[in-house]
Structure formats: structure tokens, C-alpha cells
């Protein structure tokens, strides 16, 4: 949920594609001037400059940053995403007074269910409470995953305007390969932060890096094959030739178009190299997969 709202806030301030007016800081901040300097810079052809600060450690001990927060330029918006926050610190109190401080807790099941019902209702699609509950229980509490799967389901049932349990079972099989699809989406959009974030989430859930790498390699090969079929004018045959559900073809095509042919060929070759390096002990498996993600989301 934190990732979802963090990105929503960022996009609301400067838009999803504006990188000129975005500065990001991740990890412990030892010199607050590193944040102050870009904060004092005027935005470039935009009303605002956005500064995203994650897990800085500034809210867990005394520092002088609160004095600056009280007088930041009106054209600068600072978003903090912190795991460790002491509400007694002067900085927290200043942020809460000057702006807004929100504590994110895991949402209750009923809140998630109602959120999903409202999302479907926006597209004039009916899903009753029990089915929404089944959907949430199947996918989990991650807003990123819930929204991603809801979008797929909405596309699948769009014409009939109602959802059945069979639809959910058909579309929302949350296997590891589906989560790899999300990582590949972020890689194609050059969103390294979220690509790495999803990978770390998976390893945090004890998913094997070697297995993740195998699925990434398979996915790159599939995207390359899709581009070749498109070049041959066989877009209508992608589903049957590559054994892809027809309603997912559009998403695969969009994803394939985020990579050039040369990049996909390089990714396939590099994937083989990384796999061999892991097997021969030349690379740590966690670092190896991360290097693959970084290389193709840059």
C-alpha cells in the first residue's frame, strides 16, 4: 500500500513521466544539505519539484531538518516514506503541522473488499461482496497486486459487465510467473525502483532467486518471439503459437514494445551468462538477479 500511495502522490505532483523535476533519496541520510540543495532548485517547466525520501533515518533521531521543513519553497513537495518513525521527534511534529503525516497499517479485509467493489463499479461492472472477498483472499493485501489483478479481470469481463467465481479462477491465478510479469512491466518502463522493490518483495517471501531468474529469462524469450511474430505480420496468431491466453496478448504486446529487438536479444544472452555464473559460483544468486533487473531497467 505504501508503494501504491507513494507513487500516486508523486504522480499527482509532477505526473508519471516527469523525471526532470524528481529527486529520489533512498537509505540513511547523513547530510541534510543533499536534500536541501535540490529542494531549493526551481522546477523545470512545471509548477512543482518533487523530492522522494525513503527510509532516511531522519525521523528516528534529533536533527536540524525540521527548521528547513518549516520554510521549504512553495514549488517544492517532499514525500517521506519511512519505516522507522518516532512521533516524539521535532521533525515529525513539524511535518505533521506543516504538511500531513499518515500512518499506513495493513488494511482490514472489509476495507479491501469495499475498495475492490468501488474499483469495479467505476467501470460499471458488478461484483458482489462475497466474490470481492474471494478475490481479495486469493490475491492478498498488496494494493499493487490487487489493482493489477483487478485490471486484468475488468478487461476479461468488460463486455458481460459481471464477475463470476470462474472468471476470478481463470484470470487471477497468482503464480510466481504472474508476479514476474509485474517486474517486467517496471523494467520495460525503466522504473528501476519498483522493479527492484518487487524483486526484493519476492525474495522476502522466500522465493528462490534462481527460479525468478529462470522466469525472467523465459519472459524475455517470449517477448522476443512476440516481436518477431509482429514483424512477420502474425499478430493475430500470437495467442495460438505462443500459448498465451487471448485476453493477455495485448498486455504482452505492449510490454514487448517497451524493448528493442537488440535489447531483447542482449537480455536473452545475458540471462544465460548470469545463470551460468550462478551455477559455477561466479556470482551470488541474489546479486546476479538484481544485476539483471538493473541492467534492463536503466
Describe the structure in brief.
The chain is mainly alpha-helical.
Characterization of this structure:
The chain has 298 residues and is mainly α. It has three domains: 98 residues, Rossmann fold; 63 residues, Helicase, Ruva Protein, domain 3; 121 residues, Zinc Finger, Delta Prime, domain 3, CATH 1.20.272.10. It has a three-stranded parallel beta sheet with strand order 1-2-3, sandwiched between helices. Strand 1, helix 2 and strand 2 form a beta-alpha-beta unit. The protein is globular, with a radius of gyration of 22 Å. The two termini are 25 Å apart. The model has no long low-confidence stretch (mean pLDDT 89). It comes from Catonella morbi ATCC 51271. One of its GO terms (biological process) is DNA-templated DNA replication. It catalyses: DNA(n) + a 2'-deoxyribonucleoside 5'-triphosphate = DNA(n+1) + diphosphate. This is DNA polymerase III subunit delta. It is an enzyme of class 2 (transferase).
